[in-house]
Amino acid sequence: MKKILMAILVMAAISVTAQDHNMKGKRGDMKDLSPEQIATLQTKKMTLALDLNESQQAKIKTILTKDATARKEKMAERKANKEDGKKVLTADEKYAMQNERLDHQIARKAEMKSILNTDQYEKWVKMDSRKKMRGHGKDKGEKKGKRSSKE
Predict the structure, then answer these.
(1) Secondary structure of 83-149 in HEC code, one letter for each residue
(2) In Å, what is the CA distance from 147 to each residue of 7, 99, 135, 139?
(3) Phi, psi (degrees; rounded to nearest 5) at 27
């Protein structure tokens, strides 16, 4: 009886670990869409969250379309570099990329501040910071299954 029970437990454990963990996340679904479609969806989400009016929606959609187009181009460029075998970036390239990204974030924040009213802007800042914090827990050693120090 013990052997049968042990065999069932082993089979259950194997079936759990053999499941596909490479499921598409939310970003995986977005990569098949055009920049205009992505911008439309993001604008609608922001409209629901921030209660945007028509003129705000139009301005934000323009900004998001530009961003989505630039993001697609950069993804294609990175993919081409990866296929060419270029994997390691030099320190100057890393610096330039981070500097460009931060400049873009500063410009985006200024644009949003000019489009949104005070309450909407504060809500957007909170939403934006939450979005940036997603996934950062894994970087700090907070892995799933790690036991707490209390035990």
Answers:
(1) HCCCCCCCHHHHHHHHHHHHHHHHHHHHHHHHHCCHHHHHHHHHHHHHHHHCCHHHHHCCCCCCCCC
(2) 28, 38, 19, 17
(3) -70, -30
Q: Which residue has the higher pLDDT, 27 or 85?
A: 85
- Note the pTM of the prediction, 2 decimals: 0.65
92 exposed, middle or buried (CB, 10 Å; 0-12, 13-18, 19+)? exposed
- Confidence grade of residue 151 (pLDDT, cut at 50, 70, 90): very low
Length in residues, the chain: 151
Q: Is the pLDDT of residue 26 over 90?
A: no
- What are φ and ψ of residue 135, in 5° steps? 90, -10
Tokens of 76: 């294609």
Name the DSSP letter for residue 19. S
